[in-house]
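Lay summary

Proteins are chains of building blocks that fold into shapes. Our project writes down both the chain and a compact code for its shape. Here are two examples, one after the other.
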Amino acid sequence: MDLTLIEEKIKNLLTEKNLHLYSFRYYKQASDYIMEVLTKESLDLDSVSLLSQDISALLDEIDKSEDTYLLDVSCAGSERKLEMDELEEGLYVHLTLKDKSEVEGEIKQLDQEKLSLVYKEKNKTKTSEILLTDITEARLAIKF
């Protein structure tokens, strides 16, 4: 089984559907092998079902191996981890900083070195400039 080819073909299929691959993994869990495909975009159950059928049909065409595995197609989730190049203005994010502090807010401005984050603290709206090099982890967050 050529996992590199399979991943590339799945990326192409997702691109045709205006979707983006978040992660592709092939791993063993207990006695089962699992091929996991996660999209960056949120999907409803019907969309996941249709996408699973499309990926399954694609795999039938390109994977001629006798290997058996379970296909798991889903979305990465509404609070998925972000890579630094995915940060953009308007996103509501949860940031973990080098000093272990955490902050959650909306990115108002972003350049190559820093971002401007608007957040609430004790019912007051505040803005903070954060150097990108001070961010150790970023993920999407849900605004309540």
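And here is the second example, written the same way.
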Amino acid sequence: MIGLLWLLTVPSQVVISTPRGVTTVPVTTERGSAALAAPLVTEALHLTTTLDGSEATIGVGGAVFVFQLGAPFVRADGVVFALVCAPYLARDTVFLPLDWLAVSLPRALGSRYRWDPGGARLEELAPPVLSANLLTGLRLPHAIVIDPGHGGVDPGNPGLYFPGGLVEKDITLTIGKLLRAELMRRGLSARLTRTSDTLIDLADRGASCSVECDLFVSIHVNAMPAGRRRDQTSGVETYFLSDAKTEDQKRVAKMENEAIRFETGASGAATGDVGFILRDLQSNEYLRESARLAELVQADVGAAHPGGGRGVQQAAFMVLTTARRPAILVEAGFATNRDDAAFLASALGAHKIASAIATGIVAYLREFERKLTVAAPIGGGR
């Protein structure tokens, strides 16, 4: 009935009121039904939004809404809400049905949002002061950038034992998407440096974690060179940015840094910048926090991996040098080990790795919030 009434009396705009301010968002009817530009709603409500092909995902208040462009419904935590019209893409912008904002959102999160039909107004109710997330115990908003390694013309390592022609870039993207979904399920904001098979420059990956970001996590798959008893080496390692102390750490950094050869106009000489950046950041608090983040993530992911944990490592990874927040790189196993490769290529294995990384991230953020009670923020919290 509400949808039918809107067809007769569609408001020209809606008002979104939050504890941060009041925003007016215009309503469009260019496709015959009332819709809102997703970026405007996202900005007003501080949502997390991701477009992956025809699937649009919005995270808000611990709930995740999944839309299919062209389909008049939305899924949220196992519940399907019918929509008056379907979301669509126009002029590189996603448009969401007005009834999602007015009906579906308040139904899914009724304790937090209230819709006033007379004034075409959505009100975000202020949460209780310092109320903890029931899943994580966290009290503050946090944003994580997830970097699925390689992509596009850069396949990463060839995946000696991966089935069906899979290579490293495929595995990292799968784990990255699962990690994003798991973090959002726990009420955190998370976004990917790439959501499809595309190449992103190494410097741009880390640089995407700056102002609106708390942590940077790069996902990769390890590989042993021929002649190194490769099938007997297995397990997961977590790295933070520092000078490599062992030949194996140098080997892994060299393997991952070689991705720069796929970048337009790049040359191997650029890797010389890493040493300078390391010296510049040596006393930076982010490096010390990165080491702690690596320790906590490694503890959880090592316990979940059938090959076990190979410990926290350090090396000069170019992808970590431009992140201006605590940053780590997870080598999720060895493509040159039969058991590791089968585990990482399986749905269960990828889910286990993603869930374990998420658990380590939450453990670090809980520690971080405890520090805020006795000291000024390092810069990751907002």
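What can we say about the second shape? Residues 143-372 form a domain with the Aminopeptidase fold (CATH 3.40.630.40).
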